[in-house]
Amino acid sequence: MTEYYFALYLSYSECLDYYHGKYKSVQVTEDGGKTVRFAASHLRPFISSLGIRGRFRLTLTADNQFLKLEKIS
Fold it and tell me: pTM of the full predicted structure?
């Protein structure tokens, strides 16, 4: 398993594009400086009226397949 930690701040209007499928993936820079991309659909549970704000942990399998995305703060 591999874990990546990153912060993500998107306004509500930016989130709508991801929610409605305009974008299929999200690219973030994790705390160590590595760029990581994952399916935008994994952000849906974290969208609020403010958008998405917080720190997250992305967990991947040993084969770099998505396992889970968690909000940690």
Answer: 0.88
Name the residue ranges covered by the structural domains of the chain.
2-71
Q: What are the tens digits of pLDDT across the range 3-34?
A: 999 999 999 998 888 878 788 999 999 999 99
What is the rounded distance in angstroms from the CA atom of residue 44 to the CA atom of residue 33? Answer: 25
Nearest to 52 by CA among 2, 3, 4, 17: 17
3-class state of residue 12 by DSSP: helix
Secondary structure, 3-state, 13-71: HHHHHHHCCCCCEEEEECCCCCEEEEEHHHHHHHCECCEEEEEEEEEECCCCCEEEEEE
Give the CATH number of domain 2-71.
Answer: 2.40.50
